[in-house]
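1st attempt posting a full record on here, be nice pls
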Amino acid sequence: MRDRNTNGSEDTGQTVGAPLDLNLLRTFLTVYRTGSFTAAARLLGLSQPTVTTQIRTLERQLDRELFERRARGVTPAPYADELAARIVQPLDSLAAVAGPAGSAEDALAEPVHLAGPAELLSRCVLPGLAPLVDKGVRLRITPGLTEPLLDDLRAGRHDLVIATFRPRGRTLTALPLNDEEFVLVASPAWAERLGAPEHLAAALHGVPLVAYAEDLPIVRRYWRHVFGRRLVRQPALTVPDLNAVKAAVVGGTGFTVLPRYLCAEELASGALVLLQDPEDPPINTAFLVQRPGTSGNPHVALVRDHLLQAARDW
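the predicted structure (as tokens):
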């Protein structure tokens, strides 16, 4: 309960018209962006109790609740959205001015932590990183699934994440990176046995299905988009690695659906055969995701811009 002055008004702990502490606003914006006191503390180099104290101090000064505490992190209160919109541009501009001096190439920067799907990293991203390393950029690459990688990004464990979908909310900035086309493929032996059936979807029910996961996320999407129906069947083989899925099908284990970039060489060599070439194939857009604001590491922008440029040729 707040104390009241002799005139009956609430005592907010702040002199009317007194300026707000920029450090408190900076802490608030970091918590707002990460959705977590713990993650904000890690990014700011502070202890979690210090961040909590600073947010409570700012709430007293503003006489407003800024965050609703939940089991996992915090959710911005309505006033927090208004405050963030007012301060984000000036604070980010100030951070840019106060950042490391000198060019990005000459700055002594920390490693850039980049994460994304293992297959896209190995097939497209990693082969093109030599120019960055030549410039002195140090990289730490983490493969993984999009959801946990985005959670780690919010928590400050990554600088950039390649996501298989656009993240919701305003705490992350997502830029379209590239479109991947999904293709229905099998080994030449299975393609020959199938021939050219009038109803391919029905014919494939007699062929073993190789999938990335038990719930068939990629294959089900292909079925809905191309055949206009729901796929109801169990995979013969599952392995959570699209390169391994490809290897199994190349070896003659049934059919699957893969991103075209991942099997382009096998299609060209004849190791895999395209079972169907629809005019409107299913497409998935990958996004390059970063926490909003100016990073203290000048090499993050170098990696981001390099990936956006390189993705045009993937």
